[in-house]
């Protein structure tokens, strides 16, 4: 019975040890319901933002993006204002919005990184409680709702009273249904609102056109005012010729000549000749030739009239010259016309109206082309053919660019391939853009318009010389996407050369194109379609994932394999969807970068799947079972069991008394004759005294406590070491040991010699002391600059993970080296770098790449550039590569500078004339200076 009790105690101890060692696995909480919003009140969507210490973050850059239930954009990156308690919110107007689920997310950029949170919400109709919000109304009784609705006592639910006459007595009436009794339809409010929206869009486009023509309109108005003044002065002279003195007439002539100006003036002068020069700059000499000739005639006549009055006074010749001057002024006035002139009127206002109508026609054709591209996949081949043929005819009628007959030709048939029709539509869009540029702006330099076509991928550029009198040479330069290599180029125009830009690590096409007056040329480069992942490859990856997943069924790896297998299939399906959604060539290239991220994720998951499949190969053995998902738990249980049984055996053995030695086997000691035996106590029949022993209960308790403590301590230590020895997601870079190590340990000054051996003389063997461990030497892949953020610094972490240990922070604007690049499990790109003798990882989104190494302060700048300042704008130099940083200098005219540092979007320059440094956008840089 006592033995059974002992074993029961030990069994309880073992079970308790197993209970404490088995880890508790986390259980994910089910997602809550979406936020409910009604269409009768605004809805506030927001979230609190805290850092790792639960301190509110009030300086983050947070935005909200939401989509309608049909997937179209509802709110596009709306900025969320911060508050002191870390609350970021957005007030959404729900009135009139469609009912359903609005997929939404809040994304915030902080000094610690970038994060997004699902904030989807639903818009529903108001509930019954909101309808019956009064005490005297219930679900079964209306209370006084009828009186409150109809207001008058003679109206009820069964009788309208004077309601009909009251409704039709008002001037504003709407219908809820467009169908009449006779089957005809009327316009409803929705129809009118839809038309109003379309008209608003057209109005915005026309406003853009008006803004583009506002300069020429104002010049024509000023010209008309000047001519009216001259006309008034001339009429006054003729009307009062007999009463005016010569001095009075000369004063009128002075005023007339001041308004007229002279033929050396430019568009900036406020005179008749100045305004005429604006018209010449805008539309050439043909459109303003009549006005210019009349102005020249008026100027010559006014000069002759002044001479005649000075020499002969009010003579008949002077009067005839006044009549001639008036005729010239009338001619100018007729050539200007009035604002009521149509596009067929031969006047300046008629020309303006003609340009406006041409731009409107271009915009309408552009809208038609965009609509055709949007519906391309849903239209039949016959419908596409008819629309392309009609649009080609319309565009050919309004086109003013020469040598583009191959774009506007309508020699297409119903057998024409859809890819060819698509390419013609894309080319017509580019042609319309060129025509609009010619009409809207004062153009003197050649115009370059680029677009993409199908047929692999074809990069095309249309270059036209707007000048009607001079030949111009165009330095053409076109950079290809970074994926394009020399071997990917199928064919090119003979005028082009393909070169490699080492600073940007991309290929580009270049040529010097000479165009005659009004000349046009189309250049093209055909490249392999390297931006599409073949469906055969996608199917092969799916098959590989299925084959790897099959052996994991009925194993301990099944759950882990299911997750990886599902992620692989989801990523491959997303790749297929993204490629199908890319209708246009540029959409295909843009979507490729997203599909590449998904493909990299597939490859990583496949490698992980291969690893666990190889581990599952020995699943029938003990080591294979232990190597499963719950390896730590299994090892802990085994160690507890083994240690418990071992110590149980030791304890049981300690309780068993040793066997007594037989007396016959005891050999009495032998003493020499010179030695006397030690005195022995006399045996008087009394047993010798025994050594006192502890109580059995105390002994048992101490032993049990010691065994339990040793068991748990040993098992916990071994389990911890197993856990620590498991490979982590990202290994920390190992330290490089010094090549010099200790050959012989240096003894301590306090070491004493061994008592069994005499001290020895020290030898002359030199002692090699350890050297300081140097920082690992890594090759520099590239250099980057820390981009400005809200906190003007970014985090340097121990691993390529936002949750890894924060080592230090790096201020913005600092140049740092990059040793390697890595994508983590979330698809984020991280860069390995070092700062202040400390290595770590930074997020690639927070840096800007330097195109070429930055020179030291004592070295010469990279190259000279010209900062081009537009006539309508001002260019600023900034202290950092960001428009949000402080301005170091303002430029109002072109200026030469020298490059210090260059990134893809920014250049740090020095204005040597005034010794000022700063960052400037690449948009204002002009290169190739001598």
From TrEMBL:
Signal peptide feature range: 1-29
SH3b domain mapped to chain residues: 780-851
Key words, A-Z: Membrane, Signal, Transmembrane, Transmembrane helix
Biased composition (Low complexity): 762-774
Biased composition (Polar residues): 670-683, 739-754
Region entry Disordered, spans: 663-695, 739-774
Transmembrane segments: 632-652, 701-723
Listed name of the protein: SH3b domain-containing protein
């Amino acid at each position: 019975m006592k033995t059974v009790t002992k074993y029961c105690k030990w069994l309880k101890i073992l079970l308790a040890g197993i209970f404490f060692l088995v880890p508790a696995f986390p259980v994910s909480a089910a997602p809550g319901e979406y936020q409910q919003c009604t269409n009768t009140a605004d809805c506030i969507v927001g979230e609190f933002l805290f850092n790792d210490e639960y301190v509110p973050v009030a300086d983050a850059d947070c935005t909200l993006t939401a989509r309608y239930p049909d997937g179209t954009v509802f709110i596009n990156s709306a900025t969320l204002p911060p508050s002191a308690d870390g609350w970021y919110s957005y007030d959404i107007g729900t009135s009139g919005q469609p009912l359903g689920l609005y997929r939404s997310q809040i994304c915030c950029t902080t000094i610690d990184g970038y994060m997004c949170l699902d904030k989807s919400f639903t818009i529903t109709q108001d509930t019954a409680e909101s309808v019956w919000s009064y005490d005297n109304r219930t679900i079964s009784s209306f209370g006084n709702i009828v009186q409150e609705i109809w207001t008058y006592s003679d109206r009820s639910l069964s009788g309208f009273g004077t309601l009909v006459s009251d409704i039709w007595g008002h001037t504003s009436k709407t219908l809820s249904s467009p169908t009449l009794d006779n089957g005809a339809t009327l316009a409803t409010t929705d129809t009118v609102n839809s038309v109003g929206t379309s008209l608003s869009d057209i109005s915005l486009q026309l406003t853009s056109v008006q803004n583009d023509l506002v300069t020429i309109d104002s010049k024509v108005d000023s010209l008309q005012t000047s001519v009216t003044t001259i006309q008034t002065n001339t009429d006054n002279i003729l009307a009062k010729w007999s009463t005016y003195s010569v001095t009075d007439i000369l004063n009128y002539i002075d005023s007339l000549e001041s308004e007229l100006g002279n033929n050396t003036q430019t568009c900036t002068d406020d005179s008749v000749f100045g305004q005429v020069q604006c018209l010449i700059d805008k539309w050439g000499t043909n459109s303003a030739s009549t006005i210019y000739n009349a102005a020249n005639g008026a100027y010559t006549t006014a000069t002759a009239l002044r001479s005649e009055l000075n020499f002969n006074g009010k003579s008949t010749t002077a009067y005839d010259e006044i009549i001639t001057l008036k005729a010239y002024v009338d001619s100018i006035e007729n050539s200007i016309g009035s604002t009521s002139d149509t596009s067929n009127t031969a006047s300046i206002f008629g020309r303006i109206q003609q340009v406006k109508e041409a731009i409107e026609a271009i915009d309408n054709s552009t809208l038609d082309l965009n609509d055709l591209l949007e519906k391309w996949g849903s239209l039949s081949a016959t419908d596409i053919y008819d629309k392309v043929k009609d649009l080609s005819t319309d565009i050919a009628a309004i086109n003013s660019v020469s040598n583009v007959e191959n774009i506007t030709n309508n020699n297409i048939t119903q057998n024409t391939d859809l890819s060819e029709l698509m390419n013609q539509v894309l080319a017509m869009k580019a042609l319309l853009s060129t025509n609009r540029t010619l009409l809207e702006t004062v153009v003197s330099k050649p115009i370059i318009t680029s677009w993409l076509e199908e047929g692999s991928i074809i990069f095309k550029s249309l270059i036209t010389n707007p000048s009607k009198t001079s030949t111009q040479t165009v330095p053409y330069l076109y950079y290809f996407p970074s994926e394009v290599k020399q071997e990917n180029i199928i064919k090119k125009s003979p005028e082009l050369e393909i070169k490699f830009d080492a600073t940007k690590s991309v290929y580009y096409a270049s040529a010097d194109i000479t165009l005659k007056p009004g000349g046009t040329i189309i250049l093209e480069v055909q490249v392999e379609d390297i931006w599409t992942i073949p469906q055969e490859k996608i199917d092969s990856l799916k098959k590989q994932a299925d084959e790897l997943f099959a052996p994991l069924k009925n194993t301990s790896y099944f759950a882990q394999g299911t997750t990886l297998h599902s992620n692989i299939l989801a990523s491959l399906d997303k790749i297929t969807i993204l490629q199908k959604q890319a209708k246009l060539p540029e959409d295909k290239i843009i979507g490729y970068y997203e599909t590449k991220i998904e493909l990299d994720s597939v490859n990583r998951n496949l490698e992980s799947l291969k690893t666990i499949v190889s581990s599952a190969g020995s699943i029938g053995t003990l080591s294979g079972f232990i190597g499963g998902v719950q390896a730590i738990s299994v090892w802990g249980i085994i160690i507890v069991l083994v240690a418990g049984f071992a110590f149980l055996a030791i304890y049981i053995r300690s309780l068993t008394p040793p066997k007594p030695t037989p007396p016959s086997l005891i050999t009495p000691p032998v003493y020499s004759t010179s030695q006397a035996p030690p005195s022995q106590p006399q045996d008087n029949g009394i047993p010798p005294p025994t050594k006192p022993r502890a109580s059995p209960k105390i002994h048992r308790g101490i032993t049990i406590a010691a065994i339990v403590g040793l068991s748990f301590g040993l098992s916990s230590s071994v389990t911890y070491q197993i856990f620590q020895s498991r490979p982590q997601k990202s290994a920390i870079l190992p330290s490089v040991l010094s090549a010099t190590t200790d050959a012989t340990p240096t003894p301590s000054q306090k070491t004493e010699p061994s008592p069994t051996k005499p001290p020895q003389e020290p030898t002359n063997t030199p002692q090699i002391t350890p050297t300081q461990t140097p920082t690992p030497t890594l090759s520099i892949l590239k250099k980057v600059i820390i981009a400005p953020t809200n906190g003007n610094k970014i985090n340097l972490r121990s691993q390529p993970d936002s949750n890894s240990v924060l080592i230090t922070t790096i201020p913005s604007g600092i140049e740092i080296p990059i040793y390697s690049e890595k994508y983590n499990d979330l698809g984020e790109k991280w860069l390995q770098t070092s700062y202040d003798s400390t290595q770590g990882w930074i997020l690639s989104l927070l840096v800007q790449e330097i195109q070429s190494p930055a020179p030291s302060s004592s070295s010469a700048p990279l190259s000279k550039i010209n900062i081009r300042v537009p006539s309508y704008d001002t260019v600023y130099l900034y202290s950092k590569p960001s428009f949000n940083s402080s301005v170091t200098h303002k430029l109002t005219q072109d200026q030469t500078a020298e490059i210090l540092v260059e990134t893809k979007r920014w250049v740090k320059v020095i204005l040597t004339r005034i010794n000022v440094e700063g960052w400037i956008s690449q948009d204002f840089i002009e290169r190739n200076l001598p």
